Amino acid sequence: MGILGSALQITHAFFIENRIDSPGSYFLRVCVGAITALVIFIVAKAGVPVIADASKLGGEAPINPYFVSFIAILSGLLSENAIASVQAQGAKFFGSDVPGAPDRWTRDDLNNLLLPPDLSLKAIGEYLGTTEDVTKSILSGKVQATAEQQKTISLYLRRQVRDLFSDLPPAPAN
Length: 174
Hints:
Distance between the termini: 54 Å
Order of helices and strands: HHHHEHHHHE
Largest sheet: 2 strands, antiparallel
Structural class: mainly alpha
Helix content: 55-70%
Number of domains: 2
Number of strands: 2
Strand content: under 5%
């Protein structure tokens, strides 16, 4: 089902956005969709009782295969968002503070990299747990980003942390 979701994403990019990628890119996208669907299934099986039969929550509850298929298709279709969501949940579970990691500023204004409909200020703000104004300030380099925010932003924008952030504060405005 994750492969089906990725195929939908590829088809949308090809026909609607007129975007043509290399065959290797298509293969990688299909693989990421399949892997993401498997991870989301494991996460759902591990702790989300909503997808199980509510009458049997005390014992072994069967999972609705149609709902799992739906979640897998969405995971493949929105694999980048699914990965960021799982990472955010993991950060909450294991603690969000990375000892010794400095807060940094963006090298450039990253707001220009948010291209609708795939990337939005509202969505990245939800992943960061901040308001849109604070998110915009972080992405423009006016406010420092914590280590976790740096990781989330780099994952969301599909770039390396080292390419997006710097230890040097922005130059003062004249």
